[in-house]
Amino acid sequence: xxxxxxxxxxxxxxxxxxxxxxxxxxxFETMATFAFTPKLVTTKGTHIRDGVDLKRTMMTVVxxxxxxxxxxxxxxxxxxxxxxxxxxxxxxxANGGAKFMTGLWVVLPIIVVSYGVGLSIEFLFGFLRGHSxxxxxxxxxxxxxxxMPADVPLWMVGVATAFAxxxxxxxxxxxxxxxxxxxxxxxxxxxxxxxxxxxxDKVWMAGDEVDGxxxxxxxxxxxxxxxxxxxxxxxxxxxNGLEAYAxxxxxxxxxxxxxxxxxxxxxxxxILIGALILLGTGVGSFRIMASFFIGGYVMGLILNAFGGNxxxxxxxxxxxxxxxxxxxxxxxATDPVTASxxxxxxxxxxxxxxxxxxxxxxxxxxxxxxxxxxxLFMNVMAPIIDHYVVQGNIKRRLKRVKTT
Amino acid sequence: xxxxxxTKAPRNPLFSKKNKKLITxxxxxxxxxxxxxxxxxxxxxxxxxxxxxxxxxxxxxFVLVLGNLIISLLRNLIxxxxxxxxxxxxxxxxxxxxxxxxxxxxxxxxxxxxVFVGLIITNCIIMxxxxxxxxxxxxxxxxxxxxxxGLGYAGLLILVAVFRELFGSGTLYxxxxxGDYIEGNGLYSLGYVNNNMMILPPMALIIVGVxxxxxxxxxxxxxxxx
Lengths: 404, 226
Hints:
The structure holds 2 protein chains of 2 kinds. Chain A is mainly alpha-helical. Among the domains of chain A are: 1-39, no CATH class; 261-403, no CATH class. Helix content of chain A is 64%, strand content 1%. Chain A contains 18 helices and 2 strands. Chain A has a two-stranded antiparallel sheet with strand order 1-2. The longest helix of chain A has 34 residues, at 96-129. By secondary structure, chain B is mainly α. Chain B has one domain. Helices cover 59% and strands 2% of the residues of chain B. Chain B has helices spanning 17-27, 40-45, 50-74, 83-105, 107-113, 115-118, 124-132, 139-169, 201-218; strands spanning 171-172, 175-176. A two-stranded antiparallel sheet of chain B has the order 1-2. Chain A binds chain B through residues 153, 155-156, 167, 171, 189, 192-197, and chain B through 191-193, 195-198, 200, 206, 209-210, 213.
């Protein structure tokens, strides 16, 4: 390490202003701060002194996603095997090593493409604008693969990442300036640009599916309950729909994550481990997560109260375990840049986010994955919520001043 | 008070620098769509295919040139209180002509453009040029101004439509570029898929936004101070 430090010190004069390679300063700075703490120190009076900089915050979030990633890789391998065998009742835990390798072979390229494309664009913009590489993409680059279906073509991941980084972030001025969550922008782009590769019953399982086998997800099946021909895994449901549903996707399976879905979203347990890491380190906001879950649960109860068909009657706690709801609540909605900033605002933001997510999921069968739309919508609303919270606070305090 | 000396303004040649500027300015640094942000609604609606963009651009150019000429000729006769009504009558008459001609000679394009030809009447660029230029200038400069703005609008429409048609449908002016989508040959056999979002209106807004972004970062003088 000492050797590297000496080398960097020796090279530094060439890269600072007036040096031989002045233009390449962003590159040098990125590489140097990758290994050592930056030389820059706040010169004016500081309010908070803390060792947690952007890079460390981002790494904590990436660390929190590791359980989801590992489980996602295994799950992808499992469902690829299921699709090849055409039998949904394969033992989940058998043949673990091979499944993990199959999953890795599918998931790793997606991660590589996402990071490769995203970081190159970030770097290009950093270079054009003359600042070092921002660390913001570390998290987005991991979130994007985790919210993709396993069968997504790699070039689509690349196009979506490029779109999300340029249109979602760089246009607004780079890391910390974006209005919408980057990973969700990528997902929304893919959803609207290439709907056949992002939804339906063919995309959730990697590998070649046997003829006649339907790789639908729990949500996809539930959405058919809104029509007059409810099906589960391609077979029409004749008797009690709820019972048939619980037989195919039991609550325990949904919590463990043994259901088909996007790579990282299926396992509630893995997500909750991530949530614990985020809360324990103080990176994620408890208010947003909790109110998001409560919002979803309340909407589920309201739908239950109305009832009418099996999807509306689905017990509210099921909703929290299936689809991308929990993943969105823990990793997407808590994004500190796009969420509300005020403490009261966070509760409103989270509650409405969960509320809308379940509403879109159930009442609009065209968008069974309503979570990403709900969070994007709340991203746009967050500044308004903050504005009214702040104004309300000012008004209340002014009143107090006048009366005394 | 009756003996005011009439100074004759120096005669401007037809293609003087000033007149030429009337045409070139709206094409670049004073583009009606990207700089003045007028006529956005039609730019979003009819740029799915290049053909529609060309026809729409031509229609607006025709209406704008003739309208500017007529308003400029009438400018001293129009009472200022009812000038908006007079302008509307002129645009409406011209738009009806355009609409009938399109229906007669290009029925399928006319069908695709549907109400948007009729909506040229409310296109802000046209009323804007009447108000801002034709009401205060002589016929010749007014025509030049109309040609410049019409071409600026049409050019942007076509530019946006090129992106949207190429990536949204894989064709340009109806000719397949990436191969046949239905038969799946050409690029499609490699797994390429058309981008559905290009066909949706939001993407037109994003493309116009990107064009504005590029234009402003090339010419810093266009960036407003806050």
